[in-house]
Amino acid sequence: MLPVAGQVTQVAFPRWPFSAFAFGDSPALANELAALVQAGRKTATASLPIEFVSEGLRLPAPGDLSIVTLADGAPVAIIELVEVRQIPFLRVDAAFAADEGEGDGSLRSWRTAHQAYFGRVCAPLGAEFEETTLVLCQRFRLVWTPEQPGR
Fold first, then answer.
1. By CB atoms within 10 Å of each CB, which of 92, 121, 132, 137 scores lowest?
2. What is the sign, positive or negative, of the torsion defined by CA atoms of 79, 95, 100, 135?
3. Which helix (H) or strand (E) holds 94?
């Protein structure tokens, strides 16, 4: 995940902690994935536990709210996690791949893209990505977009 540019203001919702992030590891990918979230086509995401552990963060959990941003830090959506499963990469199924909304929606496309992405994530952390590596499969619902403020 890309760090958010600029300052993030904490929202006063004592019941829920908010995080803010841009999907992906490049500005182009961040903007592309944010557009898929806004359109309602992307309702899932996958990450590696090591991403959170290496930064001293807790793992995502159902009920977590996040502000999705563009690469420049502009907020485009608020999402709420509704499901989080930790499973080996090779056990990710076609339904989850389709819910990610990326590429052609196939499991094959998902595996190819994510194997490359997870390899890029692991390298600077001194880890090696393998097909048995645990993946955090997260499903979310769209709570807010600027186009639908009263959602």
1. 132
2. positive
3. helix 94-100
Instruction: Give CA–CA dist 38/23, Å, rounded.
Output: 13
Q: How do strand 75-88 and strand 65-69 relate by DSSP bridges? A: antiparallel
pLDDT tens column, 56-107: 999 999 999 999 999 999 999 999 999 999 999 999 999 999 999 999 999 9
Instruction: Tell me the domains of the chain and their CATH numbers.
Output: 18-141 (3.10.400.10)
How far is the C-alpha of 82 from the C-alpha of 45, rounded, in Å?
A: 12
Q: Do 100 and 45 meet the contact criterion of CB atoms below 8 Å apart? A: yes
Instruction: Dig out the tokens for 27 from the structure.
Output: 């500005």
